[in-house]
Design brief:
Order of helices and strands: HHHHHHHHHHHHHH
Largest sheet: none
Number of strands: 0
Distance between the termini: 40 Å
Length: about 375
């Protein structure tokens, strides 16, 4: 829909941000304090994906909930055929590229196990710190996304307005603090650094971003505002804020959640005003192929490094800029092919399967009359 083209733009900006930070991790890095800090925040593109994901899911599911015979079943079929084909291809490819041997995210484990592969095939790899992102680079975000899909139909039925969504945000932040604080005191694996990083990536720490996306849905699509949030919810929020400010530490309103609130403002502003610099055919196309880009760009960087064509100039800035542009162009071209020949065909298979199952159900009912 034309009026929602800014959502593709948000996804495009998100993946371009992710490429910013990962491109700086290969070859000679850009060490400028100011630029380095800006580039490092490109990692927040993943959180922007989560906000946009929850927003669009509420839009699409509302219509399908009213029209589909089996909306929950159809939802999971659509989500599977949206994510699984490219991700499974990623599993095969990265096992070929990186092999089955040891790597950083395996910690003291010596190889990719059969259970690790199985967990990735079933999208349950987010439950294990050794599995969450050791097979497919960046696979942790897919695990988080799929866990959100698992609870989404329930959330859709329970969250009916912006007050519900705001309360869900507060509860998810408080729950994340309690769970993460408790787990941080337990030595589950031998590497404390790996365990700390896992507690950053895992589902409870990312759930508030989806809540922010739901709030954005009620603000933009349902035209609700902060005036529709109850005094009780706002009081709860003020207590959490006071406790955090009084203790002088971020234990509830963490950095990535604050970025999520910034993305909510960005999404709302783009729904009202679409500057050509941010919302245009190129950025929108990048947004459409962003899922393939997320999986592909790690391979592009790997092969640039493998063939020693990762650095080009002595000047740090121009060296990084050249690498970034090359990675972007090659990734976009390859991802466009994957989008057209893998993503879209399998999404169509999912739609046809839903249509066939609903037709079979209707025919069965007619025959039983």
């Amino acid at each position: 829909m034309k009026k929602l083209d800014y959502i593709d733009a948000l996804r495009g900006l998100a993946i371009l941000g992710v490429l910013l930070v990962h491109t700086n991790q290969y070859g000679r890095s850009l060490e400028s304090n100011i630029l380095g800090k800006i580039i490092s925040q490109g990692a927040r593109g993943v959180q922007l994906f989560y906000v946009a994901s929850a927003f669009t899911l509420f839009i699409s599911y509302k219509t399908r909930y009213l029209n589909d015979l089996f909306p929950v079943r159809s939802f999971f079929i659509r989500r599977f055929f949206r994510i699984a084909p490219m991700y499974y291809l990623g599993i095969i490819y990265y096992l070929f590229q990186d092999g089955f041997g040891s790597r950083y995210w395996l910690g003291d484990k010596t190889h990719i196990s059969t259970l690790n592969i199985f967990s990735n095939l079933t999208f349950t790899h987010g439950f294990n710190p050794y599995w969450i992102t050791s097979l497919v680079p960046g696979g942790w975000s897919i695990a988080v996304e799929m866990l959100f899909y698992a609870i989404f139909p329930f959330l859709f039925l329970k969250i009916k307005n912006i007050n519900n969504a705001f309360y869900f945000l507060l509860i998810s932040m408080l729950a994340n603090f309690i769970i993460s604080f408790s787990l941080s005191k337990i030595n589950v694996i031998s590497s404390l650094r790996l365990w700390d990083e896992y507690l950053v990536l895992y589902f409870p720490n990312q759930l508030p971003l989806f809540a922010i996306g739901i709030i954005m849905y009620f603000i933009i699509i349902e035209d609700q505002s902060i005036k529709d949030i109850s005094g009780k919810s706002l009081l709860f929020c003020s207590v959490l804020l006071f406790a955090e400010l009084a203790l002088g530490s971020q234990f509830i309103f963490k950095d990535h959640i604050l970025f999520g609130l910034v993305f909510l403002i960005l999404g709302y502003s783009l729904s009202k005003y679409r500057p050509k610099l941010l919302v245009n055919s190129l950025v929108n196309h990048i947004g459409k192929v962003s899922f393939s880009m997320y999986l592909v760009h790690f391979a592009i960087l790997h092969w640039l490094l493998f063939f020693n064509i990762i650095d080009y100039f002595d000047n740090q800035f121009f060296n990084y800029l050249t690498r970034y542009l090359i990675v972007c162009v090659v990734t976009i071209l390859i991802s466009t092919l994957f989008y057209n020949f893998i993503e879209l065909p399998f999404q169509n298979i999912g739609r046809k399967l839903i249509t066939k199952m609903e037709a079979s159900y209707n025919n069965k009912n007619l025959n039983n009359r």
